[in-house]
């Protein structure tokens, strides 16, 4: 039985381009983001993947990335489940601020601590630990059982909500998780064992970089 899980961070958003803290705000994809999503779909098509179900967040940049990938795969009408548990980390008072301006307001070290600490949240927002506590139970309850049942599952979400899943899948420590970078529009394919451990995984974004 094949048990495949594919995780994809959404394509570049308008606020990614402007270097803004985005969080739960809802900007759309840029033209580059649209192309990244389409290219991700084409990559998955060359892998011969056919999905049984897709999951995404309640934010349009992830939803649109998901749909563009499915269009490229020829699976336009696929069951797609949206849930806020897969939303990006809430950046609280940092939301909408340019990252350079935030450093000027609060100082380089404090902003770095909020961004790269596992446990310390920005004012009014979520820490990475909070995001894990929100996203991981949903994954275990709703997504993982379908993978273990032999379905091929696509998850299009966000850098930090995907890190929450990757922490468990790749058995990363909090420090290792903080260093785990995810490219926009770069699929990661996991082959799962029946006991929910990972048999192997490939980051197609990394493969793309090597080819370049």
Automatic annotation (TrEMBL):
InterPro entries listed in its UniProt record: His_Pase_superF_clade-1, His_PPase_superfam, PG/BPGM_mutase_AS, Phosphogly_mut1
Which sites bind substrate?
9-16, 22-23, 61, 88-91, 99, 115-116, 159-160
Q: Where are the transmembrane segments?
A: none
Could you confirm whether the keyword Hydrolase appears in this record? no
Keyword Isomerase included in the entry's annotation? yes
Q: Which residue numbers mark the site Transition state stabilizer?
A: 158
Query: Cross-referenced Gene3D superfamilies, in alphabetical order?
Result: Phosphoglycerate mutase-like
Q: Where is the signal peptide?
A: none
Q: Where is the active site?
A: 10, 88
* EC numbers on record: 5.4.2.11
Describe, as the record does, how this protein assembles with itself and its partners. Answer: Homodimer.
Task: Read off the PANTHER family from this record.
Answer: PHOSPHOGLYCERATE MUTASE
Function of this protein? Catalyzes the interconversion of 2-phosphoglycerate and 3-phosphoglycerate.
* The protein's name in its UniProt record: 2,3-bisphosphoglycerate-dependent phosphoglycerate mutase
> What is the gene called?
gpmA
